[in-house]
Write a structure and sequence with these properties.
alpha/beta; Rossmann fold; five-stranded parallel beta sheet; about 55% helix
C-alpha cells in the first residue's frame, strides 16, 4: 500500500511522515533535500536553476514510486509527484522563472511518467496558513530557505488549494495543521491517526 503526504514548504510533511511510519510500522520515503545538488543554487538564482531542480525532483519521485510498487510493502512518502507537476513547476512558469520551452518539455516528461505509475492509495494534504508556514520554516533553520518570500509561499498555497479541490485520483484526506502540534502533543497526533484509520478502513 502507498500512502503519501502533500503540503507546502514548512507544512510538516517530513515530521508527520516520520511519526506515522513509527506508529503504523510503515516504511518511510523522504524527499531528497540533503543530497539535492540544486536546492542551494535554486534559492539563490531561481530563474537559472528552476528547470534543473524540477527535473531532479521529477526523476527522484518517479524512481520512488516505482520502488514503492515493486517493494510489496506499505510505504509512506514525503511529498508526491503531482505537487511537482501541478504546483511547483506551473508556479515557476507563471512567475517567469521557467521558460515556455522548458515548461512544455517538463510537462511532456511528467505526462509520460504519469501513464506508467499508479496514484497513492491514500493522499494526505496538510493545509496550512502562511504565518504557520513562515514560523515552521524559521524554526527549522535551513539556510537555503532564508530567501523564500511570503509572495512565493502564497502563490504555492493558492495552487495547493486549487489542486486539492480538483484531485480525483484516489482517497484524499485534508488535515488543517495550523493548530496541531504532532511532536509535543500526543493528542494532536492521535487526532490525525484517528482520521487516517477512518480512511484506511475503507481500503480493505
Amino acid at each position: 500500500m502507498h500512502i503519501a503526504i502533500a503540503g507546502n514548504i514548512g507544512a510538516g510533511k517530513t515530521t508527520l511522515t516520520r511519526l506515522l511510519a513509527r506508529h503504523f510500522r510503515w516504511e518511510p520515503q523522504f524527499e531528497d533535500v540533503v543530497d539535492n545538488p540544486y536546492l542551494d543554487d535554486f534559492y539563490n538564482q531561481m530563474e537559472r536553476w528552476s528547470f534543473n531542480l524540477q527535473i531532479y525532483f521529477l526523476n527522484s519521485r518517479f524512481s520512488q514510486i516505482l520502488q514503492i510498487r515493486e517493494s510489496g510493502k506499505t510505504i509512506i512518502q514525503d511529498r508526491t509527484i503531482y505537487e511537482d507537476a501541478y504546483i511547483f513547476a506551473p508556479n515557476l512558469h507563471a512567475m517567469g522563472l521557467m521558460t515556455n520551452r522548458d515548461f512544455e518539455n517538463y510537462l511532456a516528461l511528467f505526462e509520460l511518467m504519469e501513464n506508467l505509475v499508479q496514484a497513492p492509495d491514500l493522499l494526505i494534504y496538510l493545509r496550512s496558513s502562511i504565518p504557520n508556514l513562515v514560523n515552521q520554516i524559521h524554526k527549522r533553520g535551513r539556510e537555503y530557505e532564508n530567501s523564500i518570500s511570503i509572495d512565493y509561499l502564497s502563490r504555492l498555497n493558492e495552487r495547493y488549494e486549487a489542486w486539492a479541490h480538483q484531485y480525483s485520483k484516489g482517497k484524499f484526506l485534508i488535515i488543517d495543521v495550523d493548530k496541531l502540534n504532532f511532536v509535543d502533543k500526543p493528542e494532536d497526533l492521535g487526532h490525525v491517526i484517528e482520521k487516517i484509520d477512518g480512511e484506511l478502513n475503507g481500503l480493505f
